[in-house]
Known about the structure:
This protein is of the alpha/beta class. The chain is 39% helix and 18% strand. Helix 3 links the parallel strand 2 (41-45) and strand 3.
Amino acid sequence: SVALSAQAENIIAVETLDHLGGKTKQAAAFLxxxxxxxxxxxxxxxxxxxxxxxAFNNIPRTTTIADCLxxxxxxxxxxxIILTQAALENIQDRLSAPxxxxxxxx
Length: 106
């Protein structure tokens, strides 16, 4: 994707964020550790990450989105993009899927 390529230097891939335990304080500390505090953060999660989503939703300038819903506008609008390994794999699968060809009318 062109959007991902343009943002390559701003992408952080993590194995999981389960260790944050759904706590906003720990999520904020994580953002501080990666020097993303105060920046527009896009957190792309697989569907199984609802406690993590809840923790980050309480942090200003942070947007959480499911991997199946992320689009180019979301990506280019972010200063920092954080993807879990599962979300990254799901996006790669979606982008590499064959495109259905239109059926011509007979």
